[in-house]
Amino acid sequence: MADRVIAVINQKGGTGKTTLALNLAAGLAQRAATHLVDADPQGSISQWVAMAATHTGLPPVAQPGDDPFATIAQLACTHRYVVVDCPPAIQGDLVAAVMRSVQVILIPVLPSPIDLWASVGMAAALGEARRLNPGLRAGLVLNQLETRNALSRAMREALAEFDIPILQAGMQRRAAYRSAAVEGTSVYGLGKRAQAAVADMEAIIEEVLCL
Ligand SMILES: Nc1ncnc2c1ncn2[C@@H]1O[C@H](COP(=O)(O)OP(=O)(O)OP(=O)(O)O)[C@@H](O)[C@H]1O
Ligand SMILES: [Mg+2]
After folding, report:
1. Which of 87, 149, 175, 196 is the S-S candidate for 40 at Cβ 3.0 to 4.6 Å?
2. CB-neighbour burial class of residue 177 (10 A; exposed 0-12, middle 13-18, buried 19+)
3. 158 — pLDDT class (breaks 50, 70, 90)
4. Which residues surround ligand 2, an ion (CB under 5 A)?
C-alpha cells in the first residue's frame, strides 16, 4: 500500500509541474517502488520517459484512463509512491478526480507575486476537494528561485495570504533541470553536474515524506 500518493497541480502554466513531478518521482524511485501517472493531455511526462534510455532510473508512467480514481488506487496498491503530473487547469473532471484520489498536492509556484496571483484559484479548488477528500494535504513549492533569501516583500506578503503552507525547500533556477529534460533523464541521472539540483530534490522529498 502506498505511503504517499502525490499530485503536482497548478492552474497556471509553466510553473514547473512536470519538472517537479518527474524529478520527485526519480528521487522517490531510489527509495522504493514508484509509478508516475500522466494526467496532462499534453503528454509531456510520457514523452520525457519514452525518450529516456532504460538505465536512467525513471519510473514507469501510466495514463489515467477513463477512471483516474481507479487507476491511481490500483497503482497505490502495488507501489510505495505514486506521482501524478497534471495539466495547467483546475476546472474539469480529470483534475477533480485526481484531487479526490491523492493524499498530497504539491503546487509549484514561481517567485513573483504576479505569477502567484495567477494560482490563486488553487486555494478554493483545494477547499472544494477537501469536502470529498478530508485528509488531503498540500504545500506550495517555490520554483526557479534565484536565491532563497531574495524573495521580495511583496512576494512574502502574497504567500502569506495564500493559506497553503510553503515548503522550506524549493527548486533553484538551474540549468540541470533543463538538461535533464533534453537528455531524457532526471537530475539524478546527470551525475556530478547536477549535484545541487539533486540536493534541492532530496530536501523537497524529505519534507514531502513528513507532510
Ligand atoms: N528550477 C528550474 N530551473 C530551470 N529551468 C526550469 C526549472 N523548473 C522548470 N524549468 C523549465 O521551465 C519550463 C517549464 O517547466 P515545466 O514544463 O515543468 O512546467 P509545467 O508547469 O509542467 O508546464 P505546463 O503548465 O505547460 O504543463 C521547462 O522548460 C523546464 O525545463
Ligand atoms: Mg507540464
Report:
1. 87
2. buried
3. confident
4. 17-18, 44
Overall average pLDDT of the 155-178 stretch: 89
What the block records as the C-alpha cell of 144 is 526557479
Pick from 183, 164, 165, 176: nearest CA to 200: 176
**Number of domains present in the structure of the chain:** 1
Confidence at 5, pLDDT banded by 50, 70, 90: very high
Place of cell 549535484: 195
Q: Please name which ligand lies nearest the alpha carbon of 9.
A: 1
- Sequence-distant (6+) residues with CB within 8 A of 119 are 10, 11, 12, 15, 107, 109
Residue 15 Cβ inside 6 Å of ligand 1? The answer reads: yes
The pTM is what? 0.95
Which atom of ligand 1 is nearest to 88's Cα?
A: 25
Record the cell numbers describing residue 99, joined without a space.
Answer: 484531487
Q: Starting at the earlier edge strand, list the strands of the sheet with 81-85.
A: 61-62, 34-38, 81-85, 4-8, 104-109, 137-142
Calculate how far, in angstroms, residue 177's C-alpha sits from the geometric centre of ligand 1.
Answer: 8
Amino acid at 135: G
Query: Would you say the CB of residue 14 lies under 6 angstroms from ligand 1?
Result: yes
Q: What is the CATH number of the domain that holds 139?
A: 3.40.50.300
Q: How far is the CA of 147 from the centre of ligand 2 (A)?
A: 24
19 lines ligand 1 (CB under 6 A): yes
